[in-house]
């Protein structure tokens, strides 16, 4: 059994050993390496940083370009910039969020509306098609039990003459029939009496359908990384 005093003695011995032997001399250069001769290198690099580092390393291994004598002094020809492979020199990439459509679904990517049985009564819903002359409805009453899967909901309108009708809960989950919450008047006017459109401008490309290529910064060309030769 190891007592506390024994543990303390072992720890101090370990520290003494680290100080006297070359352990600290071995650990410190590893930490120092990240701020080495090549300047600061972050500990955690992204994909792009890693690729650039690799390219620079490869360029260092390549033979030095020949020296050409000119009347103005000797020069070395650098390699011309090469075409960006990711965007094939276009400088643009198709938006990955909307897949080039420029629009996304306003209700998100889920296949059906989520109906929470605990607080479904009182929740607000918008009918995709005009129903009984209205679109905005509120769940007024619940019938049946979720266990038996026979829940019926009474939908009541919010304004004008009171209208109500019963719908099965599965109908409320159907995105092509109902929308959770009350959509704005703007959306209703845009629907123009027909079906409500489940579209929104893509938040990533703002409807442009394309995004600037990050690899080449939108220029389509990548400068070759070459070491400076004298
Ligand atoms: Zn987009
Ligand atoms: Zn590119």
Automatic annotation (TrEMBL):
Keyword Hydrolase tagged: no
Signal peptide residues on this chain, from the entry's feature table: 1-25
Pfam family membership, one: DUF2389
Keywords associated with the record: Signal
Keyword Transmembrane: no
Region feature (Disordered): 52-75
The protein's name: Uncharacterized protein
Source organism of the structure: Cyclophora tenuis
């Amino acid at each position: 059994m190891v007592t506390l005093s024994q543990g303390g003695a072992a720890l101090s011995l370990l520290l003494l050993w680290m100080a006297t032997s070359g352990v600290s001399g071995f650990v410190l250069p590893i930490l120092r390496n990240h701020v080495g001769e090549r300047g600061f290198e972050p500990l955690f690099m992204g994909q792009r940083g890693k690729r650039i580092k690799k390219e620079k390393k490869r360029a260092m291994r390549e033979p030095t370009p020949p020296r050409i004598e000119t009347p103005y002094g000797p020069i070395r020809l650098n390699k011309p910039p090469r075409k960006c492979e990711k965007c094939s020199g276009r400088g643009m990439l198709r938006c990955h969020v909307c897949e080039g459509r420029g629009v996304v679904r306003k209700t998100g990517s889920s296949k059906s509306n989520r109906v929470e049985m605990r607080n479904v009564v009182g929740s607000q819903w918008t009918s995709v098609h005009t129903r009984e002359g209205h679109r905005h409805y509120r769940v007024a009453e619940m019938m049946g039990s979720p266990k038996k899967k026979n829940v019926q909901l009474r939908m009541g309108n919010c304004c004008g003459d009171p209208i109500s009708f019963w719908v099965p809960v599965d109908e409320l989950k159907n995105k092509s029939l109902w929308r959770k919450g009350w959509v704005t008047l703007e959306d209703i006017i845009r629907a123009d009496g027909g079906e409500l459109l489940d579209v929104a401008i893509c938040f990533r490309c703002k409807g442009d359908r394309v995004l600037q290529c990050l690899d080449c910064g939108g220029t389509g060309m990548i400068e070759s990384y070459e070491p400076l030769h004298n």
